[in-house]
Predict the 3D structure of the following.
Amino acid sequence: MQEHNFDEILDYLCSGIMSKSEKQNVRDELYDHLMCRYETNLAVGMDEERATQSAINDLGDKTVIKYRLSQVHSYYPKLSMKKAMNLLIIGYVLMTFQINFFTGMGEITKFIGNVIMLVGVYCISKANKRLKQAFYIDLTGFAVEYLSVAVQPLAISDNLYLSTAFSLAGSILNLLFWIFIAVGLNDLVKPYLSEYKKKIPIGFMGFCQFCVAGSVIILHLAAFSSDKLLTDYRDEELFFLTPFIVISAVVTLFVLCRVSKCLWQSDHEYKIEDSLAQKWIAALLAIAFFVVPRVAIDVLLANQKAEVLDFTIEDCKMNDKEYERICGNLLSYGIPENIVYSLPKSEIKNYSRSVNKNELSDEVKNFVHESVSTFSTSVCNDVMIKFSTCAIGMTDESGYPLIRVLSWIDYQSSCDYTYSDAVFWEYHEARNIPLNYDGEYNGNFLLILSDDDGKIVKNEPLDIYSDKNALTDRMTGVRFEGKRELLIIHAEDFGLASSWETRNANYAFEFFHRKTPFSIFYPSPLMLYEASDYFDYFEYRRMHVTSYISWVIPGEEYKQYIATEGI
Amino acid sequence: MRVSKELAKGSTALLVLSVISKKDMYGYQIIKTIENASEDVFSLNEGTLYPILHSLEADKCLESYWCEAEGRKRKYYKITSKGLKELAGKEQEWNTFSTAVTKVLGGAKLAGA
């Protein structure tokens, strides 16, 4: 019997089948069918051309056959397309809304949502080529996005934009993902739309997601050109995005739900032949994409120790605004104007931690006044009560006030801590008392450890432990410089990588030997800045500074900590 | 007389399992057998038979093997024990359904008479 060429129609019908061997089998079977019909047609007297055409026509709706074949021969886990769509929806909801079941859960929710959505896309990706491409884009985007988090510890002033570059790449991939998923879903439901009889605005969903992802890309590019990072944008600056995000989220959910419903009603169920394990392998791979580079970088950095460099007062710089603020504070304590303004800037810088007396409430002023008599100068020989109008202060050897200090006990018993710049804490006590006592930390908090003789204790292990019952915002760390993002924590606590209490900490409480915090779920930028640059940065930039001049010790030079090997 | 697609929908798997249970068959043969047995009442959309066959195969109701015939490869389907159970279940389901329909139709005629 002569061979007949049905290549074109067979190519079309089998184009949705991904597996090459299965595709060939189906092709052979359909070829046999078409040849049988063709021969029958010839036998009843049709000419060759009519016999061929009739054989093809008798197959029925080619589009429907193609899709049903592609669905039957998808080889994903035993998960129906409908269930996969539901996974997609659940993942999208978790990822988009980042539900905070409890403090700090948002990041985790987003991550879990990301993984679930990835598995969902993976499961539907066999339905057609566009969805398959969408899956690979999503997988790559997922990896890139979390890589941008993973490289954050490497982000120092020289390569600040490394993580932003990854983040930008992630946004571009996100944009591509939504384009492909929109086209893929459209192809998927097309054969069933006539039965479903309701409109599914897939194109509009793609457009909305395109707008949001496009805006984020533009913001990234703008951040590049304006010398800041995307994370530097304040919430109010990004507020304009909110309506777009909400609209696109609502439209996307609407579309995904309708697609899922359309597939339910189409009464098609595609079972897949591969093992259930594939689904979990995909999830584990996705997690590995995130965890492995992060762990590798953390391990790499954990071995790097910080070293102390001498730092002279002359190296300090500050901008005019900061200079005026400090001078104002000094004046508020009754220091004569001619003295204040005669001081060199490097000296003024010493009082940077001071607070304007006029801003203190009467209650606080009274408290400070009363506490003068209870404060023991024996805690530290360098500390003297110097401020003429009731404040407690630490001075340099010449008697100039530096910072105002309370003893730890006074600090704890005070009902308002906002006036205090620092706390002295005896080392033997500090080793045993949890820092997260039931109180708020001072915005300008400075912890100075002293031994029984009042000498400053440095470079000793500090066994700070967490109170498991404490709220997370009163956790093992203390707020440093009044920036919520700057939490100090003992390096040893970072061993508890999954501990929620440690997730925000980005400064290890080891004065001279800082180890890199290990925090999986929260970006903890470890950026080191020259102290001289610190005050030149805007507020938002300072929030990212985790290490600069650590404290001022009377009679000693400024200490600046920088790490070796580029940290 | 041919029945509407809606009516035939859902019974295709039953028909396929039924004809294969009698003899191993290939796709085109199944179509012709159903058409002949039903005296052309059931005329399948030929192309849509194959996804159904493959789906039944994936569910382990059918097994397949390849043979050479007329110079080309031909895929034959054979019913499995699971397929026989499925067939028995579907037959029972169908009998219940058709009896009920007959009763209702008969009742309607009586009422109208």
User: Anything to note?
Assistant: The longest helix of chain B spans residues 81-112.
